Inverse folding.
């Protein structure tokens, strides 16, 4: 599965909150999926027979509602002249709140329009070893 290799390392972290924007939600389930750095979700990208996904994960928030995962910065869709902005899909669920399906987008993306289809975050240099590694914070609020 060479599809995940290469690209700029990216760490995404944040907290999932309840509708009051203050109460952290422990045990929220988060599903994420995205393209690799080359803009491919999986084998067969752009052929009509694509399979998903090289890069995807399922995780849960800790007792303080926090989550964290490491990936690579997603690429724009391979083979598309006018692709959507690079993004990571998020599906977030918790028994005490409504679920959320959204996309995490990145400030400065050349395909980011005036009305982005998700949450836009700023990428920052990540501390520690790994030249060029990035980090992003994405806090999520679930309605009641």
């Amino acid at each position: 599965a060479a599809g995940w290799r290469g690209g700029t390392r990216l760490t995404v972290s944040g907290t999932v909150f309840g509708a009051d924007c203050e109460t952290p939600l422990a045990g929220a389930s988060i599903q994420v999926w995205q393209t690799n750095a080359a803009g491919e979700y999986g084998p067969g990208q752009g052929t009509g027979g694509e399979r998903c996904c090289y890069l995807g994960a399922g995780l849960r928030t800790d007792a303080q509602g926090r989550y964290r995962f490491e990936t690579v910065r997603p690429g724009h869709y391979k083979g598309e002249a006018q692709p959507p902005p690079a993004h990571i899909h998020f599906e977030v669920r918790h028994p005490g709140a409504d679920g959320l399906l959204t996309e995490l987008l990145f400030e400065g993306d050349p395909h980011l329009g005036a009305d982005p289809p998700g949450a836009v975050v700023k990428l920052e240099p990540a501390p520690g070893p790994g030249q060029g590694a990035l980090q992003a914070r994405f806090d999520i609020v679930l309605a009641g």
Observations:
- The chain has a mean pLDDT of 91.
- The two ends are 40 Å apart (CA to CA).
- Strands lie at 9-17, 29-34, 55-60, 66-72, 87-94, 97-106, 119-121, 124-125, 134-137, 140-141.
